[in-house]
């Protein structure tokens, strides 16, 4: 029997190892620090992500209780680790160039995965998989995707609630996300969309599936996926019960402490249903157990052998490329010359322009380089609110975002949204048309993005154009333009005519102030 002993490393080798870790750590902080701060801020600020604070702790606990399952690892695969590092590089570059924090978060997760494979080898990926699954669900969704998901969940929940109310013989009509009862009007608010249940329930489903090793892989998948129908159905049930209570006992039955109590009860019932599902689903077939659930006879050891120096050098090179790209974006994104909004004319065609004062907190939250808020009033006393936020360059945290994200924060609820085309500057231009409501007031909103001669309404197309221009070293200036007016009770179509007239008169000025 031959015994191998590892020779002690020289002081120079130990110093180089420490220097590599220090350089990699500083580069990671520089690259991912702002994205991590934004992620934690969303954990604190947004109710649906409050649960995410426990996921990194659960990931650490999962690794602690399953570390005995790690098997001895051979030399790390240079090809696999290099591929994962390349994916991390691409995600970070695209995230930086398109100002999408979600991609930067995924990039950091990919980097951690590469380091795990480098440290423990590919044979232990099944053991480490739940750890990274916890970390994946700790990442908040992109605002654009969250807004679209919220809107669709609101519609599903409202439809389920309407059917439940009608089943009790109560007359009800669904208008967008508004339930019209015989004597009351019930808004299916953004907070009632079900996203506050859905994302936490999926995360907790991962927890339940992970800590149920006796269940088969298919059962674990069902546990996680069951969060989707349970969240939607239970939230629709909550809305239906709220509508029945409002019809029977008045508006006070749907407000205040009782409203939040109903929400917590529904969430706990949903969680109980998932726990019951864990008990009912079949266990693993006796005699068939996953290798990840078996304790190895040999204690785990880190991956050793050829390739460690190559991988260390590769990691540093990729981090250096990312830092260089970050510097390239900052220096090459020189905005074009434009006129300040201070010179905006007092009249546009037949409209008087009356400047409005923005709330300082709103201006700070936008992080825009120039803003304009004004009321446009014509001879018929039609009034249109104009808002423009201009960014001389875009980066993570500094770019226009969809008004559908912030409008609900002001108490307005989205009733419907669609994309239309309006003739402006001699050609049809895309515009987002959104109808929102607060109390008895209905507001019609048109918004789009304008910059670098491009008129866009699709948020994903806007991100792609930003990414392309950033990669080519072109200016990345952009702006959000928003027009809104109250919908009159007599002729709702008059609001569209008013906004389209204001848009056509405003369009010729946009290149002067936004290009």
Topology (SSEs and partners):
Blueprint: H1 11-45, H2 54-66, H3 78-98, H4 101-120, H5 125-137, H6 143-167, E1 172-175, E2 178-181, E3 185-187, H7 195-210, H8 217-225, H9 227-249, H10 256-280, H11 308-332, E4 347-348, E5 351-355, H12 360-366, E6 370-377, E7 383-391, H13 403-406, E8 413-424, E9 427-438, E10 441-451, E11 454-456, H14 459-471, E12 478-486, H15 493-506, H16 510-514
Antiparallel strand pairs: 1-2, 2-3, 4-5, 5-6, 6-7, 7-12, 8-9, 9-10, 10-11, 10-12
Q: What keywords describe this structure?
A:
515 residues, alpha+beta, Protein Transport Mog1p, Chain A, 9-stranded antiparallel β-sheet, 3-stranded antiparallel β-sheet, 52% helix, flat
Structure description:
- This protein has 515 residues and is of the alpha+beta class.
- The protein has three domains: 15-140 and 302-331, no CATH class; 143-280, no CATH class; 335-514, Protein Transport Mog1p, Chain A (3-Layer(aba) Sandwich).
- Helix content is 52%, strand content 16%.
- It contains 16 helices and twelve strands.
- Strands 4, 5, 6, 7, 8, 9, 10, 11 and 12 form a nine-stranded antiparallel beta sheet that branches. A three-stranded antiparallel beta sheet has the order 1-2-3, covered by helices on one side.
- Strand 8 and strand 9 (427-438) form a beta hairpin.
- The longest helix has 35 residues, at 11-45.
- Residues 1-7 and 289-298 have low confidence and may be disordered.
